[in-house]
Design brief:
Layout (H helix, E strand, L loop, with lengths): L13 H9 L3 E6 L2 E6 L6 H13 L5
Antiparallel strand pairs: 1-2
Amino acid sequence: MLALTGTPARLWEPKRLRTRLFSTAARLTRHARRLRLRYDQQHPWTSLITAALHRLAAYPAPG
């Protein structure tokens, strides 16, 4: 929920949130010895997921 501030997804119930975020089509690819999760660009919640992941990556590491 920390990554979804300022979005309508912040108010979703946990079951709806899991259903919508985990039902997004994605492909696991390998490039330059790294695994990448590539989301379907046509899915309605792809931009929400990628924005949330970028917000989480911006937080400093604990400790």
